[in-house]
């Protein structure tokens, strides 16, 4: 999601070639990328992926392409033509998929995910559900699934999933799919990392297990915070938190930084890098089916990939548990 903003097309191609040469086969994008989202750059990530696919470095059938349709937003009206509030309606699902396929230069995507719910939910560190923020009209789960069913039947999408979703949403989608004979939600792409565990590990873990929905964990490094590079004020000027003041600010609050410092010290104690600790731990969780990484430089990408060959010892896992007991939700925003 940095390609087209922090990264050039050539840099995106370099990362893609390296990653797939290393054995990766899954690629996740979204109609709103790059981030932070603005009208002028919207869609560039897809375009860079599309131009790389045209080079023939890899066969289309050897890459699993996932994309996402944006949920409710009065800010990103430019995603639609003519502009309108983004919703998960049948018409907008079709329009989103058609535009994504055109940018990517492919005839289908393997996984289409609802980027965030059409209804109001707590997102991105918000700590409690606020009834006052509920909207009068939500697109029903049935209509959303029927819209997804349309693009599946048209051969434009193979499977469907959700992102930034709750136990309630997963259960409603599962029930509607089962009772109405509509596409089953296969995946959930939610934030999951050492600084944010309770959002998934409690009832969502059970809900997804019961409904056979696989977690695609995003932001396993907490936007780069868990590398430790922001702790001492010496992060590069082009690092995201420095480039975009206020971006993911929940990860550099006092308690989050204190927890990160302890994870960094734990990693060093056992001869690991902070990146190895965070990514190897995420991969080791029983409910994680894929860990989605991102990078703005090739050295970062190499370090991320190398971390997946690390197996954490019982002593390290116990050390992580001890830190977690002290900082259960350090990035919560009141």
UniProtKB/TrEMBL annotation:
Domain NADP-dependent oxidoreductase stretches: 2-324
GO molecular function, one term: oxidoreductase activity
Enzyme class: oxidoreductase
InterPro entries named in the record: AKR (IPR020471), AKR_Detox_Biosynth (IPR050523), NAD(P)_OxRdtase_dom_sf (IPR036812), NADP_OxRdtase_dom (IPR023210)
EC number: 1.1.1.21
UniProt keyword terms in alphabetical order: Oxidoreductase
PANTHER family, per the entry: NAD(P)-LINKED OXIDOREDUCTASE SUPERFAMILY PROTEIN, NADH-SPECIFIC METHYLGLYOXAL REDUCTASE-RELATED
Name of the protein: Aldo/keto reductase family protein
Naturally occurring in which organism (per UniProt): Monoraphidium neglectum
């Amino acid at each position: 999601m940095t390609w087209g903003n922090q990264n050039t097309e050539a840099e995106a191609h370099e990362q893609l070639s390296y990653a797939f040469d290393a054995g990766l086969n899954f690629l996740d994008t979204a109609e709103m990328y790059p981030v932070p989202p603005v009208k002028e750059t919207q869609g560039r990530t897809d375009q860079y992926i599309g131009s790389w696919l045209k080079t023939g470095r890899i066969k289309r059938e050897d890459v699993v392409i996932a994309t996402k349709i944006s949920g409710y937003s009065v800010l990103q009206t430019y995603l639609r033509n003519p502009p309108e509030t983004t919703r998960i309606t049948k018409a907008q699902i079709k329009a989103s998929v058609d535009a994504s396929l055109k940018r990517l230069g492919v005839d289908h995507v393997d996984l289409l995910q609802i980027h965030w719910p059409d209804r109001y939910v707590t997102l991105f560190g918000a700590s409690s559900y606020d009834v006052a923020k509920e909207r009068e009209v939500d697109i029903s789960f049935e209509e959303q699934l029927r819209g997804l069913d349309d693009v599946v039947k048209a051969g434009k999408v193979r499977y469907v999933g959700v992102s930034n979703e709750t136990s309630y949403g997963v259960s409603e989608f599962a029930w509607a799919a089962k009772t109405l004979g509509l596409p089953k939600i296969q995946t959930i792409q939610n934030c999951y990392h050492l600084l944010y565990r309770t959002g998934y590990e409690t009832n969502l873990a059970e809900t997804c297990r019961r409904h056979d929905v696989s977690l695609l964990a995003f932001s396993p490094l907490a936007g780069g915070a868990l590398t430790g590079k922001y702790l001492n004020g010496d992060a590069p000027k082009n690092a995201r938190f420095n480039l975009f003041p206020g971006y993911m600010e929940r990860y550099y609050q006092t308690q989050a930084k204190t927890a990160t410092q302890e994870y960094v010290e734990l990693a060093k104690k056992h001869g690991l890098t902070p990146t190895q600790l965070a990514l190897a731990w995420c991969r080791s969780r029983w409910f994680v089916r894929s860990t989605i990484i991102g990078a703005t430089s090739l050295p970062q990408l190499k370090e991320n990939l190398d971390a997946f060959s690390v197996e954490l010892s019982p002593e390290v896992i116990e050390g992580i548990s001890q830190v977690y007991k002290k900082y259960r939700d350090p990035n919560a925003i009141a």
